[in-house]
Amino acid sequence: MTALLPRRGLAQILALIVILAVDRAVSPQFFDLRLQDGRLFGSLVDVLNRGTPVALLSLGMVLVIATRGIDLSVGAVMAISGAIAASLADTHGLPVVLSAALGAGLVCGLWNGFLVAVLGMQPIVATLILMVAGRGIAQLITEGRIVTFSSPDLVWLGNGSVLGLPVPVVIALGMLILTGAVVRGSALGLLIEATGGNARASELAGVGTRAMILSVYVWCGVCAALAGVIAAADIMGADANNAGLWLELDAILAVVIGGTSLFGGRFSLVLAVLGALIIQTMNTGILLSGYPPEFNLLVKAVVVLAVLLVQSPKLSGIAGLVTGLRRTKA
Amino acid sequence: MILKALFAASATAALLLALPANAGQLTIGFSQIGSESGWRAAETSVSKQEAAKRQVNLKIADAQQKQENQIKAIRSFIAQNVDAIFLAPVVSTGWDSVLKEAKEAKIPVVLLDRDIDPSGKELYLTAVTSDSVHEGEVAGDWLAKTVGSKPCNIVELQGTVGASVATNRKKGFDTAIAKHANLKVVRSQTGDFTRAKGKEVMESFIKAEGGGKSICAVYAHNDDMMVGAIQAMKEAGLKPGKDILTVSIDAVPDIFKAMVAGEANATVELTPNMAGPALDVVAAFKDKGTVPPKWIQTESKLYTAADDPQKIYDSKKGLGY
């Protein structure tokens, strides 16, 4: 199993290295780092920092996808939790703000999980409901305006630093370790994979598939809520119209780039986060390149296509055959 | 007091036979797009204020960003036989048939904030809009005047790619600075009109331009992106408003807050008061049959730190931006 992991991650690591090299080529100062007011300053830090929301979303999303589900509502949940956090920030302490915002994410996750696990709705339809309604809820909370706050505690969550690293990055790292410890440190990960692989067989084998499905949606909601708080803290305001907009798609993309199949049954947390970093490395590179913005989406599409092609089993089969032939010739 | 007002109103109504005698005041239906942005919310609240000022009964229908809802709202306004219809069209095409219905019912239609496809020009009374090319020009002229003859590298935060407002604000700014060889846009990227993207893009601009030292000014197609960019500059240890000049468009309350703090220099107003001029036009049309020009351009006013930003912030913050 441990020997399997590096081989599985090879394509992603290669893709990241290639994109980093391209970034270095379009922007010579890409790897420059310096200390600015006690925090590291440079494009690499930007990649980590800006990649945090999608990385957090992908942590929840990868578990949902492992159960053969999908969660389209994470962007809307970000907007809700950000709106709640911003509305409470100046009148309540950080513990209250955080528990209210994360609690909202938990409730959203419970709702999705209930629709999927208990009512047996198809995940894409069930979560579509909250994707549409959730943004409306967030707009109701903010009354359609950008709610700003100045609470230093919450601002620190978005803009502070720990040992030179931005706080969001530290939080994402902590969440990765926590999620990894819970699902891989116990049999939970295996049970989640079993649920996604074959729910009926797993249930007959004694796996509580309903509880599994419910809990992954809840975790996905909590991760999304955390991402929403960080996104709001970053701009010192909650923008219900735009916070987390389309990020559900980036999160799904990150999971897919990380090699997790949408058909469920297996997953890798680290590779999903790596997928998020690949997306952000590309985004930051595009911004640094100085190309006209009309090319942004095109470049992104081509890169994503290339990364996914590298992972395609058919293509790697052909590539393997070619290298195999070369080896036998030599 | 109320009685007096009522008396006065009914007296005017009696004098002006053109007005429906039962109401004594104009009833206008307003098909608003929906709550797509803070500016839109402000436009709605200013419209209510302007209507109340003129004792006009304004019925607002929120279309939730859907044309079909706007068409339904217009049909229902026609059925209610309102005196005029205001329309803030969500898209520029597909209005011909419903506007023909309004024309047949002899109800004048005034477009607010956005124009529609030229094929329907005879179908509406007038359009009250801002000229977004001109907004960009005002921003560019201010920068050229402020910088003087010094060389100045400008970075630009564009609006959403393909949005006409973004294209026009870029065009206007480019035209204004083209006359000055010392002004040059060195980087231009889209910030999608949002704070978060404005901040992210500005961060990358700062990295790409040697820590921001070679940047002399930032031009943002809206204030929200500028608010994000100001945060990015501060986090990079730069002083926005002093080391780097800022000019943006819209005049939302938060940019005045930044101005009070000395972190923003100038903003060009996209006035949320489109209903005011429209109400005046309708009143004149109903009273004296005055036919207005097809386009009424709202003023693109420039605000700087010299304009008492605190006072403007206070007056704007309640409008729902």
TrEMBL record, chain A:
This is ABC transporter permease. Keywords: Cell membrane, Membrane, Transmembrane, Transmembrane helix. It is found in: Cell membrane. It comes from the Bacteria. Its main location: membrane. One of its GO terms (cellular component) is plasma membrane. GO terms for molecular function: transmembrane transporter activity. It comes from Bradyrhizobium frederickii. Pfam families: BPD_transp_2 (PF02653). The keyword Transmembrane helix applies. InterPro entries: ABC_transp_permease (IPR001851). The chain crosses the membrane at residues 72-89, 95-117, 124-142, 162-192, 213-233, 245-263, 270-291, 297-322. It is a multi-pass membrane protein. PANTHER family: ABC TRANSPORTER PERMEASE PROTEIN YPHD-RELATED-RELATED (PTHR32196), GALACTOFURANOSE TRANSPORTER PERMEASE PROTEIN YTFT (PTHR32196:SF19).
Automatic annotation (TrEMBL), chain B:
InterPro entries: Peripla_BP_I, SBP_2_dom, YtfQ_transport. Residues 28-275 form the Periplasmic binding protein domain. GO terms for cellular component: cell envelope. Pfam families: Peripla_BP_4 (PF13407). The keyword Glycoprotein does not apply. Keywords: Signal. Residues 1-23 form the signal peptide. It comes from the Bacteria. PANTHER family: D-ALLOSE-BINDING PERIPLASMIC PROTEIN-RELATED (PTHR46847), GALACTOFURANOSE-BINDING PROTEIN YTFQ (PTHR46847:SF3). This is ABC transporter substrate-binding protein.
